[in-house]
Design a protein that fits this description.
Blueprint (H helix, E strand, L loop, with lengths): L3 E2 L4 E3 L4 H4 L9 H10 L5 H4 L2 H4 L5 H17 L3 E3 L5 E8 L2 E11 H5 L3 E2 L6 H14 L6 E5 L3 H10 L6 E4 L5 E7 L2 H12 L4 E5 L1 H16 L12 E8 L8 E5 L7 H8 L3 E7 L10 E6 L2 E7 L14 H10 L14 E5 L3 H10 L5 E5 L9
Parallel strand pairs: 6-10, 7-11
Antiparallel strand pairs: 1-5, 2-3, 4-5, 4-9, 5-11, 7-10, 8-9, 12-16, 12-17, 13-15, 14-15, 14-17
Length: 382
Amino acid sequence: MAIVKPFKAIRPAKDKVAFVASRSYQEYSKKELQAALSFNPFSFLHIINLGYKFDKKVSGAERFKLVHNRYLEFLEDNILLKDADNSFYLYQIEKNDLKCCGLFCATSVKDYQNNIIKKHEATLQHREELFADYLKTVAFNAEPVLMTYADNRSIADIIEKEKQSEPDYLFTTTDKVTHSLWAISDKNTIHSLEKEFHKIDALYIADGHHRSASSNLLSENSKKNNPEHTGKEPYNYFMSYLIPESEIHIYEFNRMVKDLNGLTKEQFLIILDEFYSIENQGSTVYKATKKHHFSMYLDGEFYSLYLRKKVYQFTDVLSELDTQILFKTILEPILGIKNLRKDKRIQYGYGKHNIIKMKDEIDKGNFTIGFSLVPILQTLAW
């Protein structure tokens, strides 16, 4: 049964929230990023983008420490404030006719270990270790794991009732997205939400496999180094954003590989033909459209790959996942990637426009080949 807990959030002062809010810095063009850093002293980008202040590139442990220092500055200047009470945080985003609403909460590392929190992606060990080190050093978590759960009428009723009150935050950002947030600190409501989620059999990670795996690693390391461990310490939980399945959309999660494992393009395509019907789609961006169908980008051209089902055998639920099919038919036998967690030749990408970013990375020569998979869930999006 799923464990969810309220927590004391550190969040922007109400009069500055619209200025603090930011997208992932990777989504900004260089000009946008420069403008935000130059003209908005309250932007969260100042905490995570340290090169601007020091006019140099910083990385590794030095960067992590500086991120922590900027975070402390935002607290000292009262740009960020810590809540006095444990709360759940109801957060809604709206853009045009799209709307979704979910709950920020603390989820249990034990649930992650016991597979109550379900995963569908392998993770890279070096990224797990890197992010665990990051979390330990910066001492805050600003990026929740996105999870979904089966629609639940009781939870929906509680959420709908809370939304009738005036939100703590209500603002619109320059990308025309309206944000609303309600802090739920009433103890009876908190208890009701905890009780209803405890009836739910599973939570499903939609985005954040590495973040959750890193939180698990940090928890295990912290536990080993704490002789007075009780299981109630904050490191036993990690921040998540839970959305009912009817309100979530998952974008494609792509893979890029640095080389063809010693094969020429022609040799690779001939071997690939054993498992797939291959069609050259030219240079125009081409996306996968259905299950067991992949888009491949190689040498300036997109290809559609249709699985030859008489060659590949479905033996269990895992074998039917597109991620597993790609691994068993291409990544492992042809490209020689045996360990998805440790092999540094492979990198993952995700997001609404990631297939374009994948193409750009390959065109620049940073990678040789890329694969785009159809999203696992397709309902609502932002």
